[in-house]
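Board notes (copied after class):
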Amino acid sequence: MSSASVAIPVITPPGQGRGMRVFGDEVEFVITGEQTGGRFTQWIETTHPGGGPPPHYHTREDENFYVIEGSVEFFQDGQWTAVPPGTAVFMPMGVVHAFRNAGSTPLKMLITTVPSGFETFFDRCAEEFAKPGAPDMARIVEIAGEHGIHFVHP
């Protein structure tokens, strides 16, 4: 979670968030924990066809998804469920979940984690992905664990 304690008003015009590329996705942080006093982080994530994280759970935050466009399937309770754009999805901490772009066009979602801190995880992973050659996936799993994110085999 962010060490900030004071929330400030935020207006982030389209395309003006802090962008990065991580896990093959484009991420634009539109509201950060620094701005919300650690209350939450919000970003727009664009995932290419076939992309998405493996099943995992969080020990530090709840995760909320709003599907803006594209074809997505969510994994929860041992099964995949297709949902259309306009769908809201809530995954509380401790629940094993995942998502995948099941279509042939980019998937765009608005994602919020409560409390904040997810941007720090992405920052650290982006550094690993930016290194020459393929990323050290064992290091990525280690970083995830340091942020309370644990991958599981369904």
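Comment from the instructor: The first strand starts at residue 18 and ends at 22. The mean pLDDT is 94.
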